[in-house]
User: Which sequence fits this backbone?
């Protein structure tokens, strides 16, 4: 009889031997572009592989049709009926672009720096909103950081999941400040020092803290549901709404109202939506208590997915990125705005590439977006800027390196 | 190159380059193999290891004890693997395929079905359990070092490993 441990060792050795000595690619020149070219090389192969395998997508499409039909019936007609989508002033083909880099120039609106999680969730960087270049690293970061948010662009809140022995996770909340020169202070405990579960997405306003609460229990402990949670900073009272799947959902808060925006792309269910939860929403499932503003499938087709959404500080508009996935993928994504009162969407711009993040300045006048123009598996993101008053869009000179789609805050 | 970058590059110097290349020759194979166990495919594994060496190169001016470089690399590879797994979740949403894991029948890299079954059962375990098992039963690291790599206590390593082995044993028994 072979023990489980021995079976495991044998299997590991067999799998490890599939990488033969001498078959690794070289490390290359560490200081120049050659190393990066080598490191990103396989991703380009992945991109080509993806393009070649598009015939497989037909099968995915058929499955998606069935799944969307079934889940649409289960979760509610609001997600698949009655598209409230208008294109005022829209005629012919919308502008499509992936803007060229612009000279470094501060947009004249919003804080001069934003913060972003980097280095495989080990660090938080301060990045210039003018150049897109990192200017400092936040000292005192220790552990694995999962969430980052700010209400004013100067004080940033970070979420650090902690899993004590044999117990479900809780999350430590810490804060740091960024001064006018972009230099961050050390991390200190936030006014609400910890919340239960693992935080999947974090938002703060002047009065509220909102987060996606995932149970994060060891595998032999009972796992509870996930929640969207909103905590009053003054009373510390928390309201929770159950969410059917925590993957991958996000929350944003309006700084001047108590509105909470939630959006989710519910993995294999094919459902993607944007909704708002009013301050008076009672407990229950988030989809039942929310007012759905954008049912992605009904508005943009069954393969459409909301990539990121952000609620304007005045609570009147939600800006969002939407893209076609799987077989309908067309290498483009749209920046849209939905009016919270009328639930009508309008298109602001169409970009080439892949959207990976969206921020709005505390004044509500400028959007900053992360997007990738080079392929779905690339790890370099461009930083795009969109001025809401003029409709002008441009790209910052710098790029975001590292893992795509990491949390950031402005 | 900015003044800041130039200063960093100078601090690393030719000795730094030599150190990194020596570490690559000595440890890269083992790290890629470990990353294959965590990720399932070689392309991603090599990429994560290259990233880890690049990160070490950037961190050289802050690295006081070169003896700690291998531990730094192991931690970087484990964190990089976590990052790739998260990216894959996002890629799944877009229908972007990635290489099938070496333990899948589709990849046909492993000839023995029983070994494929063991690795497939490991792949079904939670992330931390997979990391603990790979570090303990492939790299043969002591629990204290595993705890340092994963940033958890030694007791958590021990309990995670025993629970993972028990779950694995049950799973494999059911398959027989």
Assistant:
């Amino acid at each position: 009889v072979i023990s489980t441990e021995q079976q495991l060792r044998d299997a590991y050795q067999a799998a490890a031997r599939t990488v033969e000595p001498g078959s690794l690619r070289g490390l290359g020149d560490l200081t120049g572009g050659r190393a990066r070219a080598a490191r990103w090389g396989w991703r380009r192969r992945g991109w080509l592989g993806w393009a070649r395998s598009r015939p497989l997508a037909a099968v995915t499409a058929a499955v998606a049709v069935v799944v969307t039909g079934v889940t649409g019936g289960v979760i509610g007609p609001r997600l698949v009926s009655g598209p409230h989508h208008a294109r005022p002033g829209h005629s012919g083909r919308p502008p499509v672009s992936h803007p060229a880099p612009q000279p470094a120039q501060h947009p004249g609106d919003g804080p001069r720096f934003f913060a972003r999680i980097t280095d495989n969730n080990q660090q938080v960087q301060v990045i210039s909103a003018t150049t897109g270049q990192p200017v400092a690293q936040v000292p005192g970061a220790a552990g694995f950081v999962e969430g980052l948010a700010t209400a004013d662009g100067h004080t940033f809140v970070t979420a650090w999941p902690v899993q004590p022995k044999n117990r479900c996770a809780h999350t430590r909340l810490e804060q740091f400040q960024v001064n006018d020169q972009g230099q961050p202070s050390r991390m200190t405990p936030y006014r609400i020092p910890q919340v239960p579960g693992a935080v999947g997405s974090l938002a703060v306003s002047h009065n509220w803290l909102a987060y996606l609460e995932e149970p994060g229990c060891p595998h032999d402990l009972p796992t509870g549901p996930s929640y969207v949670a909103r905590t009053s900073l003054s009373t510390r009272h928390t309201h929770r709404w159950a969410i059917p799947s925590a993957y991958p959902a996000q929350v944003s808060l309006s700084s001047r109202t108590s509105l909470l925006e939630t959006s989710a792309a519910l993995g294999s269910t094919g459902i993607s939506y944007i909704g708002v939860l009013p301050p008076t929403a009672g407990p229950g499932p988030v989809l039942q208590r929310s007012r759905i503003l954008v049912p992605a499938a009904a508005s943009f087709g069954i393969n459409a997915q909301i990539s990121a959404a952000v609620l304007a500080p005045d609570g009147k508009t939600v800006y969002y990125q939407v893209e076609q996935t799987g077989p309908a993928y067309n290498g483009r994504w749209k920046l849209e705005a939905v009016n919270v009162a009328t639930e009508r969407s309008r298109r602001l711009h169409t970009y080439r590439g892949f959207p990976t993040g969206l921020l709005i300045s505390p004044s509500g006048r400028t959007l900053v977006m992360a997007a990738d123009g080079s392929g779905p598996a690339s790890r370099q993101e461009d930083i795009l800027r969109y001025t809401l008053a003029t409709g002008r869009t441009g790209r910052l000179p710098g790029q975001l390196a590292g893992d795509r789609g990491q949390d950031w805050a402005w | 190159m900015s003044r800041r970058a130039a200063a960093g590059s100078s601090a690393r110097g030719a000795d730094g380059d030599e150190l990194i290349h020596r570490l690559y020759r000595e440890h890269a194979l083992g790290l890629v193999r470990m990353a294959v166990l965590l990720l399932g495919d070689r392309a991603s594994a090599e990429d994560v290891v290259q990233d880890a060496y690049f990160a070490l190169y950037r961190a050289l001016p802050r690295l006081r004890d070169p003896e700690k470089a291998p531990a730094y690399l192991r931690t970087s590879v484990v964190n990089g693997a976590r990052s790739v797994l998260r990216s894959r979740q996002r890629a799944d949403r877009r229908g972007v395929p990635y290489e099938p894991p070496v333990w899948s029948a589709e990849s046909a890299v492993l000839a023995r079905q029983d070994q494929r079954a063991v690795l497939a059962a490991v792949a079904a375990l939670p992330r931390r359990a997979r990391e603990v098992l790979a570090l303990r039963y492939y790299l043969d690291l002591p629990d204290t070092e595993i705890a340092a790599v994963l940033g958890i206590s030694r007791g958590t390593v021990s309990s995670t490993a025993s629970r993972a082995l028990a779950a694995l044993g049950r799973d494999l028994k059911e398959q027989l």
Q: What stands out?
A: Chain B is about 75% helix and 0% strand.
